[in-house]
UniProtKB/TrEMBL annotation:
<dbReference type="InterPro" id="IPR016102">
    <property type="entry name" value="Succinyl-CoA_synth-like"/>
</dbReference>
<dbReference type="GO" id="GO:0016829">
    <property type="term" value="F:lyase activity"/>
</dbReference>
<keyword id="KW-0456">Lyase</keyword>
<dbReference type="GO" id="GO:0006099">
    <property type="term" value="P:tricarboxylic acid cycle"/>
</dbReference>
<dbReference type="GO" id="GO:0003878">
    <property type="term" value="F:ATP citrate synthase activity"/>
</dbReference>
<dbReference type="InterPro" id="IPR032263">
    <property type="entry name" value="Citrate-bd"/>
</dbReference>
<keyword id="KW-0443">Lipid metabolism</keyword>
<dbReference type="Pfam" id="PF24948">
    <property type="entry name" value="Citrate_synth_N"/>
</dbReference>
<keyword id="KW-0963">Cytoplasm</keyword>
<dbReference type="GO" id="GO:0006104">
    <property type="term" value="P:succinyl-CoA metabolic process"/>
</dbReference>
<protein>
    <recommendedName>
        <fullName>ATP citrate synthase</fullName>
        <ecNumber>2.3.3.8</ecNumber>
    </recommendedName>
</protein>
<dbReference type="InterPro" id="IPR056749">
    <property type="entry name" value="Citrate_synth_N"/>
</dbReference>
<dbReference type="GO" id="GO:0042709">
    <property type="term" value="C:succinate-CoA ligase complex"/>
</dbReference>
<keyword id="KW-0547">Nucleotide-binding</keyword>
<dbReference type="GO" id="GO:0004775">
    <property type="term" value="F:succinate-CoA ligase (ADP-forming) activity"/>
</dbReference>
<feature type="domain" description="ATP-citrate synthase citrate-binding">
    <location>
        <begin position="251"/>
        <end position="429"/>
    </location>
</feature>
<feature type="domain" description="ATP-citrate synthase ATP-grasp">
    <location>
        <begin position="2"/>
        <end position="238"/>
    </location>
</feature>
Length: 434
C-alpha cells in the first residue's frame, strides 16, 4: 500500500458521490488559469447565487499566511481573486524539518461560504493492524493547541466504530441532536473510507448546519489520501482517477517520467519516486507492500535522510521491464558529482515470497543492468544486499551471486529463510561505516 495524496476538490467530489449524509450546500469546483468562469457558472448555477470561498488546492498548508484564501466573495470577486494569484510563486516552510519548498500555485478550489460559530475535527487513518479515529469538539486552526481535547480510538480490521462509553458527546458537542449528527457523520465517513480505499481522511474543520430541518455535518476543509495499489479495482468508484497530483515543490525528474511512461505501457506495475538525489540507500523492491515495509524500516532505523528513492516493480514484469527499471534506478543511484559526492552506498534488491512472479525472469533483467553499471557501482563504493523468495528463486539467487565477480561489487544473497527486512539492518550497518 502506497499512500497518495489527492486534491481537496477530488476528495470532496468522491465524498459527495458516496456519502449518504451530506447537506445540499456541500459541493466544490476546481479552478485553474484556463477556467472559463462564464461556462463554469452555467454548469454550476450556485456559483452565481452564493457567497464563495476560494483557496489553493495544491497539497500544502499555510494558505492564509500567503494571502491565498478569499472569504465571503461574489463570483466576480472570486474570479478576480484567482486571477491575481494563480501562477504566483511562493515558498512554504516546513518547521518540523527546517526545510522549505518553492513552487507556483496553479490550482484553486471554490465552494460556498458557510457562516458558523462552532468548528469540529475528525480524522480517519489506516494503520497496519487497525484504523485510528480522532474526534474533537474543538477543531479549526487551533487543533494542535487543543490536541488534548481530541479523543482517539481504534477500530479493528472488519469492525465498525463504536463510541467509547466514557466519551460524553452530548455534553461536549452541546446537545443530543448535534452529537447524533456528528456520530452519524463519523460512521458514514468511515464506511466511505473503507469502500474507496482511503488511507487518510481528515476534516478540519467540519461544522453542523440545518439542512431542510435536519442537522447534517458539512466539511469545510478536507485532506485525503488513497491507496494507489487499489487503482485497478476502483476506476469507477474513483471516477477514473489513475494519476495523482505531484507533491508541491517536487518536479519530476526525467527518470521518474520515464518509469511513469513504462508503467502506462505495460501490464505490470512500475513505480519510482526520487526522494533524495544524495541518498546512500537505494531500493529495488518487488511488490507494493514490500516497498512500504522496506521504506518504513529504513526510516525506523533512523536513516530516512539516507533514503534515495521509493518505488516498486510487481505484476510479473518482463525481462525488459525490469532491465529498464533497474538501469533507471542505477542511473540515479550511481551519480558521483556535486549532487551526490557520497561513497559507501548500498542497493537493496528485496521483496516478499512471490506467488506467481518468476523471480529468475525478473532477475535476468536486473543482472543485465547491474553488469552494465559495474564500473559506476565500484566508483560509488556500493554494496548490494539481496533477499527474495518465490518461483525459481534458487536459480535467481545463484544468478545474482555469479555476477558478483563480473561487476566487482560485494553482493550478499539471502532466500526466504531470512526475514525480509534483515537486509535493511545490514545495509544500515554498512553505510554507518563510512
Amino acid at each position: 500500500m502506497a499512500r497518495k495524496k489527492i486534491r481537496e476538490c477530488t476528495a470532496k467530489s468522491l465524498l459527495k458521490k458516496h456519502h449518504a449524509f451530506l447537506p445540499a450546500a456541500f459541493g466544490s469546483v476546481q479552478i485553474t488559469a484556463e477556467t472559463n468562469w462564464e461556462q463554469l457558472i452555467a454548469q454550476h448555477p450556485w456559483l452565481g447565487t452564493s457567497r464563495l470561498v476560494v483557496k489553493p488546492d495544491m497539497l500544502f498548508g499555510q494558505r492564509g499566511k500567503h494571502d491565498l484564501v478569499g472569504l465571503n466573495l461574489t463570483a466576480a470577486e472570486a474570479e478576480q481573486f484567482v486571477k491575481e494569484r494563480v501562477g504566483r510563486v511562493i515558498t512554504v516552510e516546513n518547521h518540523g524539518t527546517n526545510t522549505s519548498v518553492t513552487d507556483a500555485v496553479t490550482h484553486f478550489i471554490c465552494e460556498r461560504f458557510v457562516p458558523h460559530t462552532e468548528e469540529y475535527y475528525l480524522s480517519i487513518q489506516s494503520h497496519r493492524e487497525h484504523t485510528a479515529i480522532a474526534l474533537s469538539h474543538k477543531g479549526g486552526i487551533h487543533i494542535e493547541e487543543n490536541w488534548g481535547l481530541v479523543r482517539e480510538f481504534q477500530v479493528e480490521v472488519g469492525d465498525v466504530p463504536v463510541c467509547p462509553s466514557d466519551y460524553d458527546m452530548v455534553s461536549l458537542f452541546g446537545s443530543a441532536a448535534i452529537a447524533e449528527a456528528v456520530w452519524t457523520f463519523v460512521l458514514e465517513s468511515f464506511r466511505v473510507f473503507e469502500k474507496l480505499d482511503f488511507t487518510m481522511m481528515e476534516f478540519n474543520p467540519f461544522v453542523v448546519i440545518d439542512d431542510a430541518g435536519k442537522l447534517l455535518c458539512l466539511p469545510l476543509d478536507m485532506r485525503g489520501e488513497l491507496d494507489d495499489q487499489a487503482v485497478f479495482k476502483n476506476q469507477k468508484l474513483w471516477d477514473g482517477l489513475d494519476q495523482f497530483p505531484r507533491v508541491f515543490g517536487h518536479e519530476n525528474s526525467k527518470e521518474e517520467d520515464f518509469i511513469a511512461s513504462l508503467d502506462a505501457a505495460t501490464g505490470a506495475s512500475l513505480k519510482l519516486t526520487l526522494i533524495n538525489p544524495a541518498g546512500k540507500i537505494w531500493l529495488l523492491v518487488a511488490g507494493g507492500g514490500a516497498s512500504v515495509i522496506f521504506t518504513d524500516t529504513v526510516c525506523d532505523l533512523g536513516h530516512s535522510h539516507d533514503l534515495g528513492n521509493y518505488g516498486e516493480y510487481s505484476g510479473n514484469p518482463s525481462d525488459d521491464d525490469t532491465y529498464q527499471y533497474t538501469r533507471t534506478v542505477l542511473t540515479l543511484a550511481t551519480r558521483l558529482d556535486d549532487v551526490n559526492p557520497n561513497k559507501g552506498r548500498c542497493l537493496l534488491i528485496g521483496g516478499g515470497i512471490a506467488n506467481f512472479t518468476d523471480v529468475k525472469a525478473t532477475f535476468r533483467g536486473i543482472c543485465k543492468a547491474l553488469l552494465e553499471f559495474g564500473e559506476a557501482l565500484r566508483q560509488a563504493g556500493f554494496k548490494i544486499f539481496v533477499r527474495r523468495g518465490g518461483p525459481n528463486y534458487e536459480a535467481a539467487l545463484r544468478m545474482m551471486k555469479e555476477i558478483e565477480a563480473g561487476i566487482g561489487v560485494p553482493i550478499e544473497v539471502f532466500g526466504p529463510e531470512t526475514h525480509m527486512t534483515r537486509i535493511v539492518h545490514l545495509a544500515v550497518d554498512y553505510v554507518d561505516k563510512y
